[in-house]
Predict the 3D structure of the following.
Amino acid sequence: MLIGVDEYPFHQIVESFAGAATGDPSWNDGHYFGVADHDGRVCLTASVRLYPNNDVMDGFVCLRHRGRQYNVRVSRRLRPDMERLQVGPLGIEILDPLRSMRLFLEPNDRGISMDLECTSTTVAARSPVETTRIDGRLVSERTTYELVGSVRGIVRVGDEEYRLDDESASFFRNHSWGMHPGRGGPRHYVAPGKSSRRTPGLRQWVLFRMPEYGGHFFVDPSGRRAAGRGVLMYPDRLVDLHDIRSELDFHEGGRRMSGGKVVFADADERSHEYRVEDLGWVYCQGGGYFGGWNDGLGQGVFRGDNYAEGEVWDVSHPTTVVDEEGRAFEFDHDWAESFVRLSGPGGVGAAHYECVVIREAEQWNS
């Protein structure tokens, strides 16, 4: 099968761009967004992702507003319309590669919509390729790059409309591709791995934007190759970071971060210290992570030519979620994406601050 981008002389394997280099069902390629209004009125995560070996494109929006989380999950058959990066009401449009991208959600039955233009204010930061083998078996191979910048446009929640502009809101974007366990459907007949995928401790995956620069750092107790690394991202260069330390406070229950500070040093041994203030959090489960779809099968699974689902949760409590029927529950994991106001060198900005307290070791299962 040929598609439009096959006209360009950028092929890396003897297959058209309609195919992948491996048949693994977890192979995926897509964009992940975080958007935060600096006053904390609205914040959201969103993703559009392709699974060529499952013939699936899916995505989600999880939007927080006034202590409620609005979840929209959508899925469609990928082929033959591979180049249209839209699934149901959700889509992205690449306006200027590595510079400007449109993120939109058309009106839907969850009562939220948006039309945002995200403009990068820094160069992209590429993370190292991570390859994981368990007893010789390849279970994961993935690469990413990160961008941050300004965002302008409109977000609607019910009858309320919020206009975001370059000075009052930020976006945080991650583009990743490769084999990624936990996506593309369950692996019921694979022997479990004998080594830990995650170990107990505090995981921090952070993208931040200040008025004149941005940054990214990753702290993970499992010792992944990218752990302990970071960069300051300027419009024309990257500066490596090291000695990343944090002193964080948590809301009641010890799961959701409430504030604190982060300190690190750059390649010139200059120290940078930032104060962190909580703006709210979004639960990853609402985007379909951890089997979060209604069928429990997770992301990248074929659910028909066109499919949509979602719900609205009360997430005002730091550990307890209340669904639309008034039932209260807690997730058995701590994964959520926090948004924070960041104060430090260069003024006041914002960050997408994934702060996860990993309590129990997790094995590789794919």
User: Anything to note?
Assistant: The mean pLDDT is 92. The radius of gyration is 20 Å.
